Amino acid sequence: MNYERKVDSMDSLAGSTQSFYEEADNRRKRTILIVALVLTAIVLAVAWFAFGSGKAGDDAAAGGAAGAAAGASTPTVTVMIPGRQSVQAVIAANGTIAARREMPVGVAGEGGQVVSVLVEPGQWVGAGQTLAVIDRSVQAQQAASLSASIRVAKADADLAQSELDRAEALVGRGFISKADLDRKRATRDSANARVRVAEAQYKEAVARNGRLNIVAPAAGLVLTRQVEPGQVVGAGSGVLFRMAKAGEMEMLAQLAEGDLQRVRTGTRATVTPVGTNLQIAGQVWQVSPVVNPDTRQGTVRIAVPYSDALRPGGFADARLVSGSAEAPLLPESAVQSGPEGNYVLIVGKGDKIERRPVKVGTVTDGGVSIASGLTGNEKVVVLAGAFLNVGDKVKPTIQKSSQ
């Protein structure tokens, strides 16, 4: 009986122990389940938060990109309202330098062999100054002979006069007839005439000898020399020297037919010889009355004072001031050119680009004047015009016009 109680007690103890372990196992499973559920909830919360934040960031980025794209599609351009300014009407031209009054000098007398040349190109000479000496040994002897013949003729004339005087004293006494007196008077007159002939021949010889040497017809600058000592020159020798009278120079400027109408005698000009920075003030003194039918150009002669930089035959540029006018003035970057001619871009209605054909006037250091096509109140694109198209929408930034 005690044994049965003991067995029952042990079974009861074993059952309670088993129940304890089962209950502990259940608690552990519940704990694991709860932890798993909490972790799952945390993971879901983190995933939801991350997903929601990423979407918001994407939306913000998309909005920013759209805004940037909208900003980039409307470029900012610099424009100016030029107004109208007083602009000098300047005509650009080019041409050659020449002596205003060129004097070709050759042989004026009978010529002969050149003994010496006394000047070189570039020298200044006076009126009548000897340029080259011609041999005159033969001509000198001829002049001496004529001088002697004058003395002979004068001696004959003196003798004839003496005989006439004696005859006049005797005719009153009846020793000489009036016929003889008339003959002696005629002899005296013939002798005097021969004296005058001899003197004229001598003066002619002296004048010819004086023309043997080559002399300057007027004061000026020697430009060229085409004669050397020992050379035999004569009437057919051509031009031996070229001179610029008083050293005066001019520029022969070639102008288009339209520009020729705007130039008058007295128009101021500035001449710049090629290869120099000199600006020599001049004045138009003659405008060509004809136009070359082939080139459609005419010649304007600009008088300029002497300068070492001015060499006849050289090339030069000229700027002629033909007046002043009111016109819009733009920087060169604003004016563009195409197959149809010059044009500018303006910002029109709705801040959209428009193309405006223009006619360019005078180009100065301050910019380009517009002869026609603009009133001066337009918003003209100053920069980046080559990157814009007609109809593009822009954001204009106004730049003040330079005065």
TrEMBL record:
Keywords: Coiled coil, Membrane, Transmembrane, Transmembrane helix, Transport. Residues 112-237 form the Multidrug resistance protein MdtA-like barrel-sandwich hybrid domain. It is found in: Cell envelope. Residues 150-208 form a coiled coil. InterPro entries: Beta-barrel_RND_2 (IPR058792), MdtA-like_BSH (IPR058625), MdtA-like_C (IPR058627), RND_pump_MFP (IPR006143). One of its GO terms (cellular component) is efflux pump complex. The chain crosses the membrane at residues 32-51. Pfam families: Beta-barrel_RND_2, BSH_RND, RND-MFP_C. GO terms for molecular function: efflux transmembrane transporter activity. It comes from the Bacteria. Residues 253-322 form the CusB-like beta-barrel domain. Residues 329-382 form the Multidrug resistance protein MdtA-like C-terminal permuted SH3 domain. Belongs to the membrane fusion protein (MFP) (TC 8.A.1) family. This is RND family efflux transporter, MFP subunit.
